[in-house]
Design goal:
This protein has about 240 residues and is an all-alpha fold. It has one domain (about 10-225). It has 11 helices and no strands.
Length: about 240
Amino acid sequence: MEAKTSERMPRRMVALLGLVGLSIAACVVAIAAGWVDMETLKRLVADRSPASMATYVVTVFVLEMLWFPRAWGLLVGGLAFGPLLGAALSILADMATAVTCYVVARGSGRAWVAHKMQRTPRLRNVVEVLARERGTVTVFLLRVMPVHYTAVGYAAGLSGVAPRPYLVGCLLGVLPTALLYTFVGDAAREPGSPIFIAGVAVVLVLGLGGILYVRRLWKSQARPTPTPTPLDAGPAVEPAAVE
């Protein structure tokens, strides 16, 4: 009976999958219907008052939880508050989303996912390296890569990344993208300006570099370790004859 229970997906994991599915569906419907777009966000933070800043942080947090593009909030933050203040507010909202997704996923399905991975040793070994031994680097790279922000939080919680490496990797990962996107958003008033072009180029280079690094790391860890043969152990030593 215990074995069957361990094989069954727990209710909290089912609830998490349902939450993710509903939030993605809500995002698709809202974008397709035109209910939410960058112009809507701009109108919410038309001035630079403290109320607008609080509204911006809460709105970005909710939109990220609903799988809306993170770049929207970053670009609007740069346009509304300037690059530095916009980046600071964006980082605050980003970290709130990151912690929420991580805690929800870790509490919902970490144990079940770990049990399932016991059946696939190679995948388990790769996840062990990426999530535990190199958790900070992995999270950092995923944050700068064009991987959906919300998905990284859920994946980190399910795969077993420890809290401290996760938080450090998140903070290091959101800093460059937050600054870049808000500078790009601030410079978007002049799309042909050198700052705008340089910012877009750096964002693309960071994303491509992260993809190549993770791809190489994945291949190196997924490659099966050769089993030593008797020849590798050197010549056999015959026992000395007993006279």
